[in-house]
Design brief:
Length: 160
């Protein structure tokens, strides 16, 4: 199953980008052994509208245009479910095992995701109730995807 990350905004050079790239690279190398292929990060330009609702709508339309037919959609949102890593891995593994071809995990803009996109998502995930900078969310998502591959392979990286 191909997994891609769609993120509103551009990741600038710096230590956060280096760390995110390191975890995405680890995932890209370890994922194929468990049937997961990293399809990369697609950046989506931030909305330029005057108000938050319009910016969410613009960003949601851009994300919607990039979604392939039949792709599963997970959204990262502070109002989503706070899952243990094992449950996150189990959900991805179950999707892979039932023949899903692709999964898109989307990081919204500063104003969050458009409600219609939230309704379309198969899962809305939170990395906690705190608000995180988008650069750190990419790092945390990269690490969690690498952790998913290690959990599914039984690698000792993940110890509970």
């Amino acid at each position: 199953m191909k997994i891609s990350v769609h993120a509103v905004g551009r990741m600038k050079a710096g230590p956060e980008k280096q760390l995110a790239d390191r975890y995405f690279e680890r995932f890209a190398k370890s994922g194929p052994a468990v049937g997961l292929e990293f399809a990369g990060v697609q950046e989506i330009a931030e909305g330029r509208a005057q108000n938050a609702a319009e910016r969410r709508r613009e960003e949601g339309q851009k994300l919607q245009a990039l979604l392939q037919q039949g792709a599963a959609l997970f959204l990262l949102d502070e109002r989503g479910k706070n899952l243990p890593s094992e449950d996150f891995a189990a959900r991805i593994g179950a999707m892979r095992d039932t023949g899903r071809k692709s999964l898109v995990i989307a990081i919204g803009g500063a104003d969050g995701h458009e409600p219609a996109l939230r309704d379309q998502a198969e899962l809305v995930i939170s990395f906690g109730a705190l608000t995180w900078p988008h650069q750190l969310v990419r790092v945390m998502l990269g690490e969690q995807l690498y952790r998913v591959a290690t959990i599914l392979s039984g690698h000792p990286y993940h110890r509970a």
